[in-house]
Design brief:
5-stranded antiparallel sheet, alpha+beta, 13 helices, disordered C terminus, two-stranded antiparallel sheet, 9 strands
Length: 348
């Protein structure tokens, strides 16, 4: 009996101390085996990354940053049509429906101011009709009982976007605004803008009046070759004829690096319109847009895209583009080069 008891005790101890095996089977069925995660499945090996030089990485990053697709840019714009051109060659850097016709609003005053600079002497006296004085804003509130120097009225058109001054100049040069509008259309044709039709001197909404983003860029680019026009339109402020200070409607002059001058416009039918020139280093571009609802955002995006596109590898093969320098304050002092009166008849 003692031997049997001893054997049972030994067997019990053996069972308790024996190592557990997942293959052992009990009367209750197969034992539950706890599965522990394998470390190699958690910490997966990353695939080897090919080593690239710093130069190649920087080049690739530059390409990716500057080569934002034109489609991607177009989706961000609120404008109905837009264009960016190289000011020196005329080559298109970006375009969104650039031949779509639309009301120009006050951007058409580029033609009004340019024709006046070429045809009038600075001290010519310009009378103001009651019709001109009644023009809606923007205006400089001309007195129909007075005459003004052509020089002051031209500045009012290009800097303060004055509708009354536009009509007064038109009547002085052509006898009527309607006749002057035909001169404007003819001038547009001379400059290479064949889809522009003018019906008035101010850009106020008129049936049949139209331009395109491409035409605006073409007109402005050639107008800026006239030194007097370029000097006038880049002024941030001017002294009004009543002694008040008038500020340029073109906020790009102090908001966007490299702004050389431009013309804004707005009517309900046209929405926001713009044309302007920008220069950084040796690179010059012209931006134009029609039918915008977020004009300044659109302009900023178009300008940055244009300069990036000019500097993108492959676009400037064989040419060295000067890097854009630090932002400098625009010089809008009084020293504006005004051409001698007798030289104003010279065409662009």
């Amino acid at each position: 009996m003692k031997a049997v008891t001893h054997s049972l005790i030994v067997l019990l101890v053996f069972c308790l101390c024996a190592p557990f095996s997942p293959r052992s089977v009990s009367a209750q069925g197969p034992p539950t085996v706890q599965k522990w995660p394998i470390i190699s499945t958690i910490h997966k090996r990353r695939p080897p990354v090919a080593k690239t030089s710093g130069h190649k990485r920087n080049r690739a990053a530059s390409i990716n940053k500057s080569a934002i697709s034109s489609t991607g840019l177009a989706r961000k714009l609120s404008a109905r049509s837009a264009i960016v051109i190289d000011a020196r060659t005329g080559r298109h850097l970006f375009s969104l429906d650039p031949n779509r016709p639309g009301q120009p609003a006050s951007t058409i005053k580029v033609l009004t101011g340019l024709i006046a600079i070429q045809q009038l002497n600075n001290r010519d006296q310009v009378p103001v009709s009651r019709r001109a004085a009644r023009m809606p804003r923007s205006k400089v509130y001309l007195d129909p009982r007075r005459s003004y120097h052509a020089n002051d009225l031209i500045d009012s058109v290009l800097v303060a976007s004055a509708n009354d001054a536009s009509v007064a100049l038109a009547e002085k040069m052509a006898g009527s605004e309607k006749a002057f509008a035909k001169m404007m259309t003819s001038k547009a044709r001379q400059l290479g803008a064949f889809r522009t039709i003018c019906k008035n001197a101010s850009g106020l909404t008129a049936k049949g009046q139209q331009t395109t983003a491409r035409d605006l860029a073409t007109i402005f680019n050639k107008a800026m070759k006239n030194k007097e026009f370029a000097a006038r339109i880049q002024r941030a402020t001017m002294k009004g004829m009543d002694g008040t200070t008038l500020r340029n409607h073109n906020k790009a002059l102090w908001r966007i690096d490299g702004a050389q001058g431009g013309k804004t416009g707005y009517t309900y039918a046209a929405r926001q319109t713009y044309v302007g020139k920008f220069k950084r280093g040796q690179t010059e571009i012209v931006v134009a847009l029609l039918g915008s609802s977020s004009m300044w955002k659109d302009i900023s995006r178009l300008v940055e895209y244009g300069f990036a596109e000019k500097q993108r590898p492959g676009r400037a093969a064989g040419r060295k583009l000067a890097a854009a320098g630090p932002r400098r304050q625009q010089q809008h002092g009084p020293g504006i080069p005004v051409l001698a009166d007798r030289s104003k008849i010279a065409q662009l």
